[in-house]
């Protein structure tokens, strides 16, 4: 087995299999913030990515991507149910997103979550060379840092959570809270999107583990099974560093797409097909209940009902890529959204002039860039989101200083893109007003906002994120006294 000095461990590999129109199987970048973010930085780095290909059963053989080796993990049907659809996406995902849907606590899922985490840790231990850096990603693999530490005390371990970390009172509901906290704190550096998350973890570490928790470091007992440490012990203690590292996008990739003739022509064609004189409201999401799609449809539908927006002047494009389709909550959401889109088009559309274009399909990067260029108002309204890279992609995709970004206050991106039109998506009246405000905004105001947001993401792109995290991780090499 070839070993690497940098190993990334994530639930998903950055590739999805896709059946091409001619029936051939091809590999395509998987939708989702994590894959996009890491793909950009690892393509030219000698590293190994341990993850799942999305196929059930035996792991497929996959080609390297540039200098990046892929180590596919097999996932069985039972594991998919208990680990991915169950504990990760029906327990942790809703709980970590402010319980906007009720988390399900099913005792049967835990063992599967734990055993899959162990298999991922074993695979990472196998491909990590002595003293390697291992970077574990997201809530699916929250036990891996501690498991890996036990298997390979020589490696330096980072953990990054792409989603929000909940307030202590929500985390405390988790039946397996102690194991999950210890698992994550097996890392040398635990990174979050927002500083509040580090604060929440420090409070929990103090309460549940008797650790000394500050917002940038947690001092805790080195032994994972030891009883809670007393505050003044100095021997056998570990320091776990924590901090906020807001994830970003590959701005250069988006700029080079912008300049491609295909993208420019495609954007022109889209504008013509949507109606040359029409203002375009665009949303691009995984079809997920955290994204606030229903709130946004309600706001748009009421604007049409009240005659404040007319189908002859404005059109909405909602891209909603299928996601986690075997999880009950997601199926129900898709049904509700499709019914509502049908209702809105039935009530307000005209022949050859729908109120909403609804696209439930994956797009490649060039077509996404063309869509972003066509939007007059990008509408990003999650009820809770760790970051939301779509908001940043929209800003990077603009070729000039036009276009407005309407952005939920509950997306991590809102703390950085302060020049967006910030909105509380739970307040449908406020959302309607903000949409009207963005549609009517003065071009000089829009230009000033867009310039400021573009400057921000240019200086804080995905490469800056990876540099900041990996530099800090290097400083956090184990300190056991
Ligand atoms: P999440 O990680 O919750 O999916 P983000 O907004 O952070 O949310 O990231 C979504 C990523 O998925 C973005 O990079 C976006 O371009 C990509 N994406 C969204 N919709 C599609 C689609 N229909 N086809 C391909 N990629 C998509
Ligand atoms: O960004 C959050 C996240 O859960 C990633 O970990 C994940 O890859 C992405 O959303 C898409 O979700 P999934 O992998 O379940 O399709």
Automatic annotation (TrEMBL):
| CDD domains (alphabetical) | GT20_TPS
Enumerate the InterPro entries for this protein. Glyco_trans_20
SUPFAM superfamilies the record matches: UDP-Glycosyltransferase/glycogen phosphorylase
What Pfam families does this protein's entry cite? Glyco_transf_20 (PF00982)
Which Gene3D superfamilies does the record associate with it?
Answer: Glycogen Phosphorylase B
Give the family per the record. Belongs to the glycosyltransferase 20 family.
Protein name per Swiss-Prot or TrEMBL: Trehalose-6-phosphate synthase
What high-level taxonomic lineage is stated for the organism?
Answer: Bacteria, Bacillati, Actinomycetota, Actinomycetes, Micromonosporales
């Amino acid at each position: 087995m070839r070993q690497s000095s940098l190993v990334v461990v994530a639930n998903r590999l950055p590739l999805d299999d896709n059946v091409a129109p001619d029936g051939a199987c091809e590999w395509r970048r998987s939708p989702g913030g994590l894959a996009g973010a890491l793909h950009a930085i690892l393509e030219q780095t000698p590293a190994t990515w341990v993850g799942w290909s999305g196929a059930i059963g035996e792991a497929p053989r996959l080609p390297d991507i540039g200098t990046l080796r892929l180590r596919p993990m097999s996932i069985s049907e039972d594991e998919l149910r208990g680990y991915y659809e169950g504990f990760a996406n029906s327990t942790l995902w809703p709980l970590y997103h402010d319980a906007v849907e009720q988390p399900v606590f099913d005792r049967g899922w835990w063992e599967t979550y734990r055993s899959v985490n162990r298999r991922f840790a074993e695979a990472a231990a196998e491909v990590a060379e002595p003293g390697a850096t291992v970077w574990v990603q997201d809530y699916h693999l929250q036990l891996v840092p501690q498991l890996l530490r036990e298997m390979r005390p020589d490696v330096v371990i980072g953990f990054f959570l792409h989603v929000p970390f909940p307030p202590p009172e929500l985390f405390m509901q988790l039946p397996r809270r102690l194991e999950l906290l210890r698992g994550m704190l097996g890392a040398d550096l635990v990174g979050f999107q927002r500083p509040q998350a580090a604060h929440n973890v420090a409070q929990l570490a103090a309460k549940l583990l008797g650790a000394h928790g500050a917002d940038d470091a947690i001092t805790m007992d080195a032994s994972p099974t030891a009883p809670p440490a007393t505050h003044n012990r100095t021997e056998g203690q570990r320091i776990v560093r924590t901090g906020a590292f807001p994830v970003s996008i590959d701005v250069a990739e988006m700029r080079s797409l912008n300049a491609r003739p295909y993208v420019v022509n495609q954007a022109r064609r889209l504008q013509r097909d949507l109606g040359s004189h029409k203002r375009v409201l665009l949303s691009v999401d995984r079809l997920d209940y955290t994204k606030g799609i229903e709130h946004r449809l309600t706001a748009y539908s009421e604007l049409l009902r009240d005659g404040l927006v007319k189908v002859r002047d404005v059109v909405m494009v909602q891209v909603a890529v299928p996601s986690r389709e075997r999880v009950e909550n997601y199926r129900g959401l898709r049904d509700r959204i499709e019914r509502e889109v049908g209702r809105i088009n039935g009530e307000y559309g005209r022949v050859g002039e729908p109120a909403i274009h609804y696209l439930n399909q994956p797009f490649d990067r060039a077509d996404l860039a063309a869509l972003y260029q066509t939007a007059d108002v990008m509408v990003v309204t999650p009820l809770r989101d760790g970051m939301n890279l779509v908001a940043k992609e929209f800003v990077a995709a603009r070729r000039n200083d036009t276009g407005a970004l309407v952005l939920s206050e509950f997306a991590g991106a809102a703390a950085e893109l302060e020049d967006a039109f910030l909105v509380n998506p739970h307040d449908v009246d406020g959302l309607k007003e903000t949409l009207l405000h963005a549609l009517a905004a003065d071009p000089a105001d829009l230009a000033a906002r867009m310039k400021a947001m573009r400057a921000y993401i240019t200086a804080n792109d995905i490469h800056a994120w990876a540099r900041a995290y990996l530099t800090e991780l290097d400083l956090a090499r184990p300190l056991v006294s």
